[in-house]
Amino acid sequence: MRQKVELKIRKKWQEIQDLEDQKKALDAKIHDARIYIQALEDSKRLFPKEGTDDENFEEPVTLKVGTALAGARDVIYKAGKPLYIDEILKQMGREVTKKARVSLVGSISAYARDGKIFKKAGKNTFGLIEMPTPFQLNEIDGTIVGNLRVQ
């Protein structure tokens, strides 16, 4: 009787080992499938959204490394929230002068008007279009409502 029980125990241990091997194989397949999905998601971004013409498809806008706009983008991205132009200049290590403010505001505003890279969050306050918006515009009077306060 004892030998029969020992035999059943060994068979059950072998069954567990076989199931663990199958699990490892399935985990590897799941991992590969997730990588494949991610690659497809990355590829999908290269194509225009449905309902748009291929002729109107625009390449993503990139900024040249080392430019003031690229520096401003990096500063805002690191902050994780819209920043006032003086704060952007300070964090870029630039002097906060009227000339510097006017120059950078003009450049950033041009991109924001086109809906590329930057968005206007208030007077001389800019965020990135890729960031979630921590504020809303009141549709009735155009005032800003939410976490962001504009003076």
Topology:
Blueprint: H1 2-44, H2 68-79, E1 83-84, H3 85-91, H4 98-113, E2 118-122, E3 125-128, E4 135-137, E5 144-146
Antiparallel strand pairs: 1-3, 2-3, 4-5
What are the defining features of this structure?
two-stranded antiparallel sheet; disordered C terminus; 52% helix; mainly alpha; 3-stranded antiparallel beta sheet; 2 domains; 151 residues; elongated
Could you explain how this protein is built, in words?
By secondary structure, the chain is mainly alpha-helical. It folds into 2 domains: 2-50; 68-146, Arc Repressor Mutant, subunit A (Orthogonal Bundle). Helices cover 52% and strands 11% of the residues. The protein is built from 4 helices and 5 strands, in the order H-H-E-H-H-E-E-E-E. The protein has helices at residues 2-44, 68-79, 85-91, 98-113, and strands spanning 83-84, 118-122, 125-128, 135-137, 144-146. It starts with a helix and ends in a 5-residue tail after the last strand. Mean pLDDT is 81; it is low at 145-151.
Order of helices and strands: HHEHHEEEE
Question: Domains counted in the coordinates: how many?
Answer: 2
Distance between the termini: 87 Å
What is the C-alpha radius of gyration, as a whole number of Å? 28 Å
The gist of it:
By secondary structure, the protein is mainly alpha-helical.
